[in-house]
Automatic annotation (TrEMBL):
Name listed for the protein in its UniProt record: MFS transporter
Keywords: Cell membrane, Membrane, Transmembrane, Transmembrane helix
A GO molecular-function annotation: transmembrane transporter activity
Transmembrane segments: 24-43, 55-76, 83-105, 111-132, 144-167, 179-197, 244-268, 280-299, 311-331, 369-392, 398-416
InterPro entries: MFS (IPR011701), MFS_trans_sf (IPR036259)
Membrane topology of this protein: Multi-pass membrane protein
PANTHER family linked: INTEGRAL MEMBRANE EFFLUX PROTEIN-RELATED, MEMBRANE PROTEIN
Main localization, broad class: membrane
Domain of life: Bacteria
Cellular localization per UniProt: Cell membrane
Organism: Nonomuraea terrae
Lineage of the species this protein comes from: Bacteria, Bacillati, Actinomycetota, Actinomycetes, Streptosporangiales
SUPFAM superfamilies in the record: MFS general substrate transporter
Amino acid sequence: MSFVADLRVVLQGRDFRRLFGTRLVSQFSDGIFQFAVTGFAFFSPENQTTALEVAAGLAVLLLPYSVLGPFVGVFIDRWSRRQILMIAPFIRGLLLFVTAALVATDAPDPAFYAAALGVLGVNRFFLAALGASLPHVVPADRLMAANAVTPTSGTVVTFIGAGVGFLLRDIFGGSDFGVALLMVVSGVVFGLSALVARTMGRRLLGPSDDPDRPQAREALRNVVVGLADGAKHLVRHRRAASTLGALAAHRFLYGMCTALGIILYRYYFTDGDPDAALRGIGLVVAASGFGYFMAVIITPYATERFTIERWVPIALASAGVLTAALVLPFQEWGLPVAGFVLGVAGQSVKICADTAVQRDVEDIYLGRAFSIYDMLFNGMYVLAAAVAAAILPADGKSYLAVVIISVGYPVAALAYRAVTSSSRAQVV
């Protein structure tokens, strides 16, 4: 397996191991926190979750990555990244303790969501600093391997953290006090990542001194202009843009699936039992996570056999057909299997989108292209949850939602195929 081989290669570097350890500890903590927020927002015995509340909860979890993403680089390129990796965990830990106190004292939901947004905003800086630090701890010829293994490993560890959160919930209980304890644990674990980061030299991770660097205010203004230039550049590279469009379509449809699944488990499958609902959705998440991992193994071979331009529509169309077959009967067993299918398909498309953007977009536009990528990746997911809030009934059983998802995937596949075929014809 290429993943294991790549991991073995990059782990030979001492500095990479320390940075990698910082990422793993932090994303393990992330898994616990995300489980705590999900449990509190969607499966609390005290709350009667609606599709609108699902949309609001997903917005809290994802919008900081979309809104802050393009702007954090301005500061990541000015402040010591090693210091960010040391200080951010303590700020995040403090905010987590505040969030835990708000939950334990039954504070109004807006106060909780504001504190959670603060936690995730700090985390966005932390993850951006990790990504910008990577080239400083691996040789150039190993950077591709490092880029391949670090996000996948982080995602797997996040799923493991969520699983540990599930086990801790059984110990602490599903009350508000139990959720507060989960957040405290997450804050303590995240603080440990600062201890790992402290083992690295202050200047090891950059940034390098640049006397010609613009002032922060000018740089922030340039971000907006740069995003517009990046979008124009992407449009001129139709294969990269179309693959990014395919990923955006998947994220929208996957967001609808998420909202649908949460409400179905919360009410239709479990008659409102929050603990049973959380166990059910936990199984779906685990199956989806396994699908993500399988996509890492399958996609390199599939793209070599079929090419990206053929594998993307195969993955999308398969996701639509199988989702219809598995979800339309509205049987509980179908959703974990559908989660696995969508995990494989979605991660396959994401890997192809990463590769297409890196392959086709000029290097000077890559940062802006990936900023647009992040905004679409999370923004479309939140938009889908908002649409689902408008169409889902109280118990979640919606044939209309399943039809939109099942038809949307093949339509996205056909659109992608049409664009890439015309692009290839123009090149010829």
